[in-house]
Amino acid sequence: MEFLYASEVLVNGLMAGVMYSLVALGFVLIYKASGVFNYAQGVMALFAAMTLVGIMEGRVPFAHMINAAFGVHVENFGWTVPGLLAILLTALVMVGLAIAIEKLVLKHLVGQEPIILFMATIGLAWFLEGLGDVMWGADVKVLDVGLPQGISETVETVTNNWLGYGFFIDRLDIWAAVIAAVLVAALVGFSQYTKQGRAMRAVADDHQAALSVGISLQFIWIMVWSIAGFVALVAGIMWGTKSGVQFSLSLIALKALPVLMLGGFTSIPGAIVGGLIIGMGEKLFEYFVGPMVGGATENWFAYVLALIFLVFRPQGLFGERIIERV
Amino acid sequence: MKLKLATVAFGALMAAGPAMADLVVPNLSYRTGPYGANGTQYADGFNDYFTLLNERDGGIGGEKVQTPECETAYNTEKGVECYESTKGSGALVYNPLSTGITYQLIPKVSADKIPLYTPGYGRTSAKNGKVFEWVFNAPANYWDGASVAVKYLLDQNGGDLNGKKIALVYHNSAYGKEPIRTLQELSKKHGFTLTELPIDPPGQEQKSQWLQIRRDKPDYVIMWGWGVMNQTAIQEAANIRFPMENFIGIWWSGSEVDVKPVGEAANGYKALTFHGVGMDYPIYDDMKKFVIEPGKASQGGPHVGSVLYSRGMYAAVVIAEAIKKAQELSGTSAITAAQLRDGFEALDITPARLAELGLPDFGPEIKMTCDNHGGSGMSRVQQWDAAAGKWNLITDFTEPDQEILTPLITEDSEAFAKEAGITPRC
């Protein structure tokens, strides 16, 4: 029975890892294409989820400000938008955001040190946090795009019949795994088989060389940030469905960090494998060692695990080998 | 030029700060950060009650009340900064809505001689006024809450919890760890097994803990959560089909924001409370007339009547009553912080007085003395009705088990007194 319990923990750890990977993917995309560690990725997920709920519920953006400035009382447009259409509209908002970021921030920092760009993304995170609250309010929002939650009875019944113990797997986690698989396939397909995708890879390999063959850095940056915005939207939907859309959603970035350290900052498969290892590792550690040390080991163990990997592979499991020639 | 600059600076200071004659009750709030959704509602209720007094009665004893806000983001360092930056404004009392900030402020308020009012949170043993001269935590503290939860379970089980299994799911912080000692003592007394399951804040990922609950099958789960941890825990409980009626949260795990994101699955979830909820109280007639309709409600009044709004308002009610008592005792309307402490120690909010305030049966009687800064500790249980979207009170106010709590409070406060070199008074 002990083995079955551990197996259940392992499977759930893998599922949790997929959820972490969804966040890590956004970081990887931007880092790969521009060498920028986007500190704002978690806040982008929050902002996207808030916008999605706002559009679905027909909320008036900036209602508080409008009410205060004009002495009116507007809250809702009086309509609701179906989930799929709202997702498309939110994706457009994220494209708009990517354009704004390129025009207002990145364009002015071309050629700067990566640390300057990193710091700009810290500023962006603060700005987006405030913008989201001002646009849609800081209250906890319920996000329901029709994704199922709760125990999968099929898995429980099948495992019970086969093994004598019904495994718990959350249906939302199963959906997350499917969505993550589709997302990764789409991203890999895009970068391998489309002109824009190849251009993106060219920029990632060498900015100067890409520019010299006529690739527009501006277009690529907007495209990459738009894709990262879409990935943030997907992560926001999954995590927002799980526990409501609220500020804490932006902190899921902390869960992605050890995944990136382990998987490598430049590898899409690395983000997935890293997520799975972290998810599985932290859950198994909590199961076996947690009770001996008072529990709550998951947050710190993920970082310890990543650090252990770093000792042996500083670039992460799938990261590009760092070669410095002097 | 220097004179002009000094005049401008002085003018700006006077314009920015509260008027010197006003009663200043700083509102150390948090409207941003991971706990902003909770803090906003509490801060609104706190502000609105003082606005009501200012608009309807011209303040307290003829003195207007100012509630300058300072954003702490539920961050202890920022909370201390807020305290330091506002204490010079003639601050009468602080209510930081954070156990972490409270622990940091206790030595500071004791040195500065400013009361600290922490209803339902903070350091539990501050109930002992002999040691904690400047801290008040009536009407109830965490240990009271733990005891009332167990008493409720005893009632549900014909007075016998022997052999039952109870799991405590708690926020892995100073706040979440507060009830452990009491629950351990209660488990010895009543013979139940206690399993402690810490969850690291903010608490979005709790799968391991709920898988353990699914395996161990405890009879009851008690929760000490805050913010996103609450919603996630209730969702996870629903996911593993844990019976909601056997899941009880402390009062900080029992507001609308905790259950609404979970939807229908949260139906039947229970939580403790030390005050009423909703707008079926006469006070809201005045609140509408003097605060909401004239557009003076904090943030426009989107949360009026919610659990956390009611709690913020209740904290303001107790502070206002203590101010009134201090004015009576001192014979002056412009009281000092030290006089307010005397007001707190002589406070007696009877059921009749609560009804007079437009809040009949809203809270338990609050009677504080020199040695009792924590009141009776009574609280009650409420249950969430998801279809109606409201909390229903399902028990009367229940007294905690003082036989267990009093020695614990004495032990903890005496240890603090020894450590801090305090000679107990009263």
From TrEMBL, chain A:
It holds the Pfam family BPD_transp_2. GO terms for cellular component: plasma membrane. It is a multi-pass membrane protein. The chain crosses the membrane at residues 9-30, 36-56, 77-101, 113-131, 174-193, 213-239, 259-280. Keywords: Amino-acid transport, Cell membrane, Membrane, Transmembrane, Transmembrane helix, Transport. One of its GO terms (molecular function) is transmembrane transporter activity. GO terms for biological process: amino acid transport. It is found in: Cell membrane. PANTHER family: ABC TRANSPORTER PERMEASE PROTEIN, BRANCHED-CHAIN AMINO ACID TRANSPORT SYSTEM PERMEASE PROTEIN LIVH. Belongs to the binding-protein-dependent transport system permease family. LivHM subfamily. This is Amino acid/amide ABC transporter membrane protein 1 (HAAT family).
TrEMBL record, chain B:
It comes from the Bacteria. Residues 1-21 form the signal peptide. Residues 25-386 form the Leucine-binding protein domain. InterPro entries: Leu-bd (IPR028081), Peripla_BP_I (IPR028082). Keywords: Signal. It holds the Pfam family Peripla_BP_6. PANTHER family: BLR6548 PROTEIN (PTHR47235:SF1). Belongs to the leucine-binding protein family. This is Amino acid/amide ABC transporter substrate-binding protein (HAAT family). It comes from Paracoccus lutimaris. The lineage of its organism: Bacteria, Pseudomonadati, Pseudomonadota, Alphaproteobacteria, Rhodobacterales.
